[in-house]
Design brief:
Blueprint lengths: L10 H4 L7 H5 L20 H11 L3 E5 L6 E2 L5 E2 L4 E2 L2 E5 L2 E12 L5 E13 L7 E6 L12 E6 L12 E6 L1
Antiparallel strand pairs: 1-2, 1-5, 3-4, 6-7, 6-9, 7-8, 9-10
The structure holds zinc ion (ZN).
């Protein structure tokens, strides 16, 4: 380490970065304790997303309406961010939509290369206001034929396999 002229170096700074060795641990020069975490987690999705997820379990895509701005929003929220007021009502949307944008992904979420791309897309849900959509996957489609504006429909898991999650829809396919 190069000392600046006129700056007094303390020993801690001078030796900063000295590595520990296994010998240091064995000889007890290092204080070390081990423990196993026993942490339990609970996560509350909140009023709006909680009802949205329950809707998936029932095979329904739910949105909310705001009377003031006239928007039908999905994913639902408790509060209209345009009007600064609580939303007015719930509405069941259709199981169809259009591809707003998409991406051909040649790596999985945990960064493994794949030959057949996973196609993630933002799907504008029919019955919601223009531009209101959800991120999901496309399936049963030639990657070279996916287009913005393509009409798609939700392919649901069987009712017994649904668990109240976005993955209760397996994917969206053109129709
Ligand atoms: Zn509004």
């Amino acid at each position: 380490m190069r000392a600046k002229a006129g700056v007094k170096q303390t020993p801690e700074i001078q030796y900063a970065g000295t590595g520990l060795s296994s010998k240091d641990f064995k000889e007890g020069k290092i204080l070390c304790t081990r423990w196993t975490a026993d942490a339990k987690y609970a996560w509350d999705a909140g009023i709006a997303i909680g009802k949205y997820l329950a809707g998936f379990k029932a095979g329904k895509i739910l949105g909310v309406r705001c009377i003031k701005c006239g928007r039908t929003m999905v994913p639902p929220r408790a509060f209209c961010e345009w009007c600064f007021k609580t939303v007015d009502s719930w509405v069941q949307l259709r199981n169809t939509g259009i591809v707003n944008t998409f991406s051909l992904c040649y790596v999985t979420w945990d960064v493994k290369r794949v030959k057949k791309p996973e196609i993630s897309a933002v799907i504008e849900i029919d019955g919601a206001s223009k531009g209101m959509g959800i991120m999901h996957l496309l399936g049963e489609v030639d990657p070279n034929k996916v287009r913005i504006g393509m009409k798609v429909k939700a392919i649901w898991k069987p009712a017994a396999e649904r668990e109240g999650a976005i993955t209760d829809i397996k994917y969206w396919k053109p129709y």
